[in-house]
Queue: 3 jobs
Job 1
Amino acid sequence: MKNRAKEIIKNQLKKENITYIKLSKLMQNRGYEYSENTIRSKINRGSYSFVFLLEVCDSLDIDISFSQPK
């Protein structure tokens, strides 16, 4: 599962042609204080919190929504 977690963000960054440096700047613009090295480590390790994933998605203007079962 860690490989899948790693590939989710890496694929999106590649698709949008965004480097770790640029992602760091985008995240800082949203108030999330992560250095390029911290971001790189978290993603390459493949184990990061759901909060970090939401922060990355917010910084990339990706909306994640979950539908509630009825």
Job 2
Amino acid sequence: MAEKVAKVGIKKKAGFLYFIDKAGNISRVEMARGGRKKGKKKKEMVEKVGVKKVGGYLYFIDKAGDVSRAKMARGGHRKKKAKKKAKKKPAKKKRRK
């Protein structure tokens, strides 16, 4: 479950990707669309928040436009090795005499 880190309340505009930059501020960049030349787009700072990031957490902008964080799932569990099943041989056909 996520917990709110900072209440900002920004309104998201269509066609932009919103993210928390290295300084802990909310920034946005224009999304890549078909037909556009590839390359870096200029990022633009939307709101100065200055969130101090802690390792092991994923920081994001939630639906309300606030900065939230969630604990990252690390490791998980291994899948058990599947045992090989012995293939059944087809039954022998009885020969008529």
Job 3
Amino acid sequence: MNERPKPPIAVALHYNVNGGGAPRVVAKGGGQIAEKIIETAREHNVPLQEDAALAGALSKLDIGREIPKELYVAVAHVLAFAWTIAGKSPPPASSSRQEETTSQTSRLPALSYSRFS
């Protein structure tokens, strides 16, 4: 039973509360590309969350594509994690679409999800 370890997978998302729509995939890759995504995220203090199932599902999406409804709940948990790490709280949903603001609480940096075996 010599299973080779699977290479890492990383998927980065970006979400702008005021921009409307769902979070979008902004980068993805496996192996060395995944390592570079993770390294870049760390350099820019982007929260990282390791989730094999979510990374696998997100890695099937095209870059630039919004996440599908089936992944909303899983990604919402990661967004909440990112806001907590950043020491921020998301703006209320009702005001986020009514007011156009450039405050830091209205924008969430790209997130990276990774899978390692």
